[in-house]
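User: Design a sequence. Structure:
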């Protein structure tokens, strides 16, 4: 049965909160998908480890300092660090002080190893750089796209996921090929696997679409600090996925005021005038800018970014014979506005940030190309996120509270417009498909779009905790997460008009009527499809609608891992992650005895009541060594 009482709705939240508090007091410095970290081992000239050394890690942009000490095995771990340039200062009694420059990247554990030399601590050795080219601290197969790549490489359309194609084995898929509700969104295919299963996370929270795949939000490209793509041996803190993940971190302000602005313009008239060029008119303008800096030096910082896309295209419609005389076109505009704001506050050992983002896009386009049936699509997406990172001794803690909401609406774009509509209120399709669903098989499609009206919604309330602690030559990592996912909406197909089907040939009286075979209204009616006037997939209310609720799904997860440095050149990684969903199936439907007739040696009990109150447990084990 569907869990709908107070315990079902809030029980997992209470458990998650209790575990967060428990782990915060007990727990184990870590890399997570929303941050990076530094870990290393200190040795003396003879190769022996150096315990009890003082480690001070300073962010060059904000002057934030993180302090820790080495364990009895000479190891240390910084905990969660936002990507950027850092200086690691190492002080130990009887040794010269070392200052090591380190660049931290998202979802990456950087090696901060050092060999100390004997001398007075007042003597400082500044290391100029490292020749290390291979990350020996992680077994994850991943790639990181830096802010320099994001800012300098040309991206047609400025979609924040497009740069993922720089990684081997990665391709971008248009969300519109998944579902009409995802026009204007993209997803990522890893190693040839379908992009629906890719997991998209921003600043540590999940923004994946749980209904059809892709993402629920677009972000302004200028607000992205770094992006990490994992294809195998995923980090334990990564959310549920069977293919790969994209982990994005947004920019924050620093002690220096910085900003930029841009304007991009493309137009058909700027193309070369090639003979016989019949390309349809196209124009795109993209503009925006960002600004970040200090509110209180070394303490409070801000970052703002806004971008706008204005695109217009003339979409041609060239029907197959005998309807070529009805050729025409319609305007297919696309508009998108993306904004983001972020505040970062550094108080004592706590690093706290708040981020808000809003995305809206609108488009008019056909579901099936080369038809007079465009639909108007609009998406609204908003998100709030609060993050807290802090250390207690050499224990490190990272907590995220997130809320995201996605709303899509589809309506007809034909009725009342200048788009060709021979019979207002009637959808006419000639060919094998009376609903104009199959490109290439329908000879002529017009009238109100069969998809309208339609709406899809999703909201996520998330809380996550990630922690770690170095102990001797081990670094233990663990975390817990809870995501309350609510879906809903309706799809009232054929809600505006019926779909009228006709044969794909015209003969007899049809040929004697005005226009003959070239007039689609002369063809006899062979079928009429009607909508049921509802469109709800369930009887449960959600998002202010009387039905269509999907879930709520309470996704609970936890993980534990260990990076064991068995030898200076050998690290063994092992971990366990557990995920459970409570509301991914409906179990409230009665038995359907008529289905028992299909039972055979492979299937039985098809007519029984569904009895799956929650999804099967998902377990991921990670092992690796280097």
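Assistant: Done.
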């Amino acid at each position: 049965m569907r869990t709908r009482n107070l315990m079902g709705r809030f029980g997992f939240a209470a458990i998650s909160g209790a575990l967060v508090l428990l782990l915060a007091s007990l727990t184990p410095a870590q890399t997570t998908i929303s941050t990076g970290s530094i870990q290393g081992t200190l040795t003396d000239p003879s190769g022996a480890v150096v315990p009890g050394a003082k480690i001070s890690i300073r962010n060059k942009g904000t002057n934030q300092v993180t302090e820790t000490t080495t364990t009895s095995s000479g190891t240390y771990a910084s905990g969660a660090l936002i990507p950027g340039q850092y200086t690691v200062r190492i002080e130990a009694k009887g040794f010269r002080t070392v200052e090591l420059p380190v660049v931290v990247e998202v979802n990456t554990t950087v090696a901060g190893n050092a060999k100390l030399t004997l001398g007075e601590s007042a003597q400082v050795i500044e290391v100029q750089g490292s020749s290390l080219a291979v990350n020996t601290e992680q077994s994850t197969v991943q790639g990181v796209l830096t802010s320099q790549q994001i800012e300098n490489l040309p991206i047609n359309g400025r979609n924040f996921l497009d740069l993922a194609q720089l990684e081997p084995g990665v391709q971008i898929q248009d969300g519109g090929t998944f579902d009409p509700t995802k026009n204007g969104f993209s997803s990522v295919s890893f190693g040839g696997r379908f992009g629906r299963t890719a997991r998209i996370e921003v600043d540590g929270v999940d923004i994946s679409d749980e209904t059809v795949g892709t993402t629920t939000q677009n972000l302004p490209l200028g607000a992205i600090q770094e992006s990490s793509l994992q294809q195998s041996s995923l980090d334990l803190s990564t959310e549920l996925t069977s293919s790969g993940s994209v982990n994005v971190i947004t920019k924050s302000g620093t002690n220096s005021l910085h900003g930029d602005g841009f304007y991009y313009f493309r137009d058909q008239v700027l193309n070369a005038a090639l003979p016989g060029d019949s390309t349809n008119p196209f124009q795109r303008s993209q503009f925006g800018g960002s600004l970040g800096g200090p509110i209180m030096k070394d303490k409070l910082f801000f970052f703002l970014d806004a971008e706008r896309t204005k695109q217009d295209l003339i979409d041609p419609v060239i029907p197959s014979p005998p309807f070529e005389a009805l050729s025409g076109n319609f305007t297919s505009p696309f508009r998108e506005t993306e904004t983001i704001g972020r505040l970062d506050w550094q108080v004592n050992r706590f690093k706290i940030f708040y981020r808000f983002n809003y995305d809206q896009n609108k488009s008019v386009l056909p579901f099936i190309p080369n038809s007079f049936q465009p639909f108007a699509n609009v998406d609204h997406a908003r998100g709030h996120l609060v993050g807290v990172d802090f250390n207690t001794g050499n224990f490190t803690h990272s907590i995220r509270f997130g809320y995201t909401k996605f709303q899509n609406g589809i309506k007809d774009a034909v009725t009342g417009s200048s788009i060709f509509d021979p019979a207002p209120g009637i959808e006419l399709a000639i060919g094998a498909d009376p609903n104009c669903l199959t490109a290439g098989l329908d000879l002529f499609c017009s009238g109100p779009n069969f998809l309208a009206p339609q709406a899809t919604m999703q909201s996520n309330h998330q809380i996550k905790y990630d922690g770690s602690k170095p102990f001797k030559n081990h670094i233990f990592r663990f975390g817990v997460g809870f995501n309350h996912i609510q879906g809903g909406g309706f799809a009232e197909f054929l809600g505006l008009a019926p779909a009228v089907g006709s044969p794909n040939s015209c003969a007899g009286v049809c040929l004697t009527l005005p226009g003959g075979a070239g007039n689609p209204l002369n063809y006899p009616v062979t079928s009429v499809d009607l909508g049921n006037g509802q469109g709800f997939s369930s009887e449960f209310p959600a998002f202010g609608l009387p039905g269509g609720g999907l879930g709520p799904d309470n996704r609970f997860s936890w993980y534990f891992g260990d990076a064991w440095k068995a030898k200076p050149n050998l690290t063994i990684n092992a971990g366990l992650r557990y995920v459970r969903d409570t509301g991914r199936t409906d179990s409230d439907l009665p038995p359907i005895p008529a289905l028992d007739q299909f039972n055979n040696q492979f299937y039985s009990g098809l007519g029984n009541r569904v009895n799956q109150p929650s999804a099967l447990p998902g377990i991921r084990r990670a092992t690796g060594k280097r």
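Residues 93 and 351 are 30 Å apart (CA to CA). Residues 1-30, 615-626 have pLDDT under 50 and may be disordered.
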